[in-house]
Amino acid sequence: MRLLLQRVSSAQVSVAGDVIAQIEQGLLVFVCAMIGDTEGVAQKMARKTARLRVFNDEQGKMNLSLAQIGGEALVVSQFTLAADTRRGNRPGFSSAMMPSAALELFDAVARSLADEDVVVRVGRFGADMAVKLVNDGPITVWLDSAE
To answer: Which of 78, 85, 93, 140 is catalytic?
Structure first.
């Protein structure tokens, strides 16, 4: 499973021009389920996301987690994180999980984040979404369960 986390001061996702979810301070979490991933992997990745210390403490050090600051998470499906660009100029996505199974793991990430006392908003799985964000820092972190 691959997650791309962006620390944001605000973020929103729209479908067909309508805002369907938005957050203030927190993390924009792009989620890609890969072939072989399980619900256990999704839970582990969500725990890591909630507990990752990427928010500043009183001294300006990245020492606080999403859960500690009471931040929100906007969780968005992003199968293109599976892009294989090793050959040619057109990325391949054969390592991404098929949509029906990926939806279950996407939902598991969102549920597991909520279990960590994080307010969770979600995009619409499989939809053509427009995502707006104000990246805070900028801080962007890549999590890969295979590493």
So the answer is: 78
Q: Over pLDDT 70: what percentage of the chain?
A: 99
Catalytic residue, candidates 38, 80, 93, 140: 80
* Per-residue pLDDT band at 23 (split at 50, 70, 90): very high
* Cα distance between the two ends of the chain: 10
pTM above 0.85, yes or no: yes
Share the mean pLDDT of the chain: 96
In contact, 71 and 25? CB cutoff 8 Å: yes
Looking at the structure, give the CATH architecture of the domain made up of residues 2-85+92-143.
3-Layer(bba) Sandwich (3.50)
Q: Which of 135, 139, 10 is nearest to 62 (CA)?
A: 139
Domain residue limits, the chain: 2-85+92-143
Question: Any catalytic annotation for residue 79?
Answer: yes
